[in-house]
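A quick aside before the break. I want you to see a complete sequence-to-structure record at least once, exactly as it would be stored in a machine-readable document. Don't worry about memorizing anything.
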Amino acid sequence: LWPRHDVRGKTREAKLFHHAEVGDLELHHEAFTVNSAPTQQLIVYQAEPGSTSADALALLGSLSAGPVPARDTTRGTD
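That is the input. The structure line, written in tokens, reads:
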């Protein structure tokens, strides 16, 4: 199998990460081959919908987004 290259690596797997601010994240990843660059892969990580990891990722996204700018409410009041 190896000489014919019939054996491939894992393309789907779950990994556990620890983030200092939001705690443990169990993320599933999938690897995709890039057709124009066969030696390259695109790896996509995601949390299971509705899981504590999904909640932690949402929290992490809100922490990195920064404050929302104040909305101008004076427009259109001529």
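Two observations worth writing down. DSSP finds one helix and three strands in the chain. The helical segments are 52-65. We'll return to this after the break.
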